Amino acid sequence: MPTATATTPRWRLRFADNREARNWNLVSLALTVPLLLVGYYYYGPNALRTALAGAGTALLCDWAAGRLILRRRTLDDWSALVTGLWVACMLPAEMMNVGGLVIRDVPVNTAPLYAAAGAAFAILVVKIPFGGAMTVPFSPAAAGFAFLTVCFPQKVFAYVPSILVPSAHKSSLALLLRQGRSALGGGQLSGVFMGQSVGPLGTGCMLVICAALLAMCLMKARRGAALSAAGLIASVAVFAFLFPRVTGTGLSVRLHSVGMELFSGSLLFAAVFLLPEPGIMPNRWYTRLGYGAAAGALCLLLRHLGSYEESVCFAVLLANAVVPLLYRLQTEIDARREHRRKREGAPARAEGKEGL
After folding, report:
1. Which helix (H) or strand (E) holds 345?
2. What is the mean pLDDT of the chain?
3. Do residues 107 and 45 touch, judged by C-beta distance below 8 A?
4. Confidence of residue 162 (pLDDT cuts 50, 70, 90)
5. Residue 317 contacts by C-beta under 8 Å, 6 or more apart in sequence?
6. Residues 124, 59: contact at Cβ < 8 Å?
7. 1 within a domain of the structure (yes/no)
8. Fewer Cβ close by (within 10 Å): the C or N end of the chain?
9. What is the pTM of this model?
10. Is residue 43 included in any domain, yes or no?
11. How far apart are CA 178 and CA 70, in angstroms?
12. CATH number of the domain to which 301 belongs
């Protein structure tokens, strides 16, 4: 990570003020609430219970660990609340499948328990030990969901169809894509775009996520975050077009592959919300684009070679690890540019002295 020298990124110095960090997270919360409302519409009260469990656990852990370990208040920037909600958004709304918890012969929804576990890991293992949200090297929400993916893969991908708005397919888009199938043909694109597909409770409605991305582009403070998201989306689209996973040949198959890669799992959600963490994201426009492009390439690589149904959170974490390399590249580019400027300016000054 960059040290506190003259080359410290202005982006991080700006968020050293707690007020700026709080404003950032409040906007993130405002952009997340519509996703939770869509989840409530599709899955009912279970979606809100899961979200409340993740948010409540994150707040409790952040308050306790901040007092005991950091010896200061850490709730003021609202990052814990946002982290807990993001972990819950990537989980199923219900977990009452075979082998689940049963009390008096009645299946119990254990999704809130897993949301609480992921939020606790994000706060206690990732955020607090590194000093807080603005000094953490990895996205806490991505790390929390990655922890759940590694420990409970059969649970976090056990998606249930919506009762209110049933899907034409009984499997998630990510699982269909692994099987080489597409869910975008036959007029089904609009339904997929509206979130009428089997998947996580808060990341399936592409209309709301695209609206959040558009809002980021319109807000001056969020345009840099939109650049990172655009880099990821563009990288995924290019690689999906060149190496389609949908079975078949022709241009339409490649376009279906691009759509399935972008719309499946939590990819767009991660691009808009998880990737542009203010304490991690680079500060130059070209490094932000490279940061997003690296995350997209890593995501497609893990999807092709990995064993998990969804791997975008691992790609985000790996892209976070690449940020110091981007800072080193940025410093090298600035040094070469300054050296070139001084070298070109020296002859001009020499000629001026000869004229005198």
Report:
1. helix 312-355
2. 84
3. no
4. confident
5. 138, 139, 142, 143, 146
6. no
7. no
8. C
9. 0.86
10. yes
11. 44
12. 1.10.3430
